[in-house]
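Re: beginner question about structure tokens

> Can someone show what the tokenized structure looks like for a real chain? I only ever see the sequence side.

Sure, here's an example I had lying around. Input first:
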Amino acid sequence: MKKITQLSVVASLTGLVLCSSVAHAAVSMDRTRVIYDGGQKSISLNISNNNKQLPYLAQGWMENAEGEKINSPLVVLPPVQRLEPGKSSQVKIEALPAANMLPNDRESLFYFNLREIPPKSDKPNTLQIALQTRVKLFYRPKAIIPEKNAAPAQDKLTLEKQGETVMLKNPTPYYVTIINAGATAKSDAKDFTPVMVAPFASENLGVSASKLGNSPVLTYINDYGGRPELNFRCQASSCQVVTETK
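And the corresponding structure tokens:
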């Protein structure tokens, strides 16, 4: 299970302290996840300084699936840039030749990090708070880029009941993130912990079979940050997605 988005706070008095926060970032980006199509040499993300009075530095870097900072096969350019008050800019993520060594039959998971660095205060003992945004980046090799108007790959997901345990099986080459699951579309997402399933893998959905019933509804995050629903129908211990007929 992975967190969809993670925020950190950098607080400075005499040093730097990291802690979680729900404060609003001065520097923001235009998406909550990144899809990197392997057919492109680079992609660009839009970033903005929402502070109308102060300039900020924006620092970007990549991490691998284990959360370790990396400089290959993807690199952020420029690694640091200045954003004037109320202005926008772009960050480029470029694939190095080492990207050719990534699996070509499935997506690879990375994390893009964007940290704001506030201007140094001219007042002593001033508390400075800055946010760090961390979003998933899925490197999608050219061989598995879906055709235009193709049916969502998530339609191939299945559920398998093993007693009260429900396993979500992902037979596709794409990562799938489920943000809600219940017996109806109105199930309270506050009681559900998001689940990310790797390509060709299975994960415990974390909801009991009795709570899901025989017509479960799952909500996932698509490439654009949207939240479509999947309606399942169960027979015995196996559940399949019910697709709309056209």
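Each token stands for a local structural state, so reading them left to right follows the chain. The CA atoms of residues 81 and 243 lie 46 Å apart.
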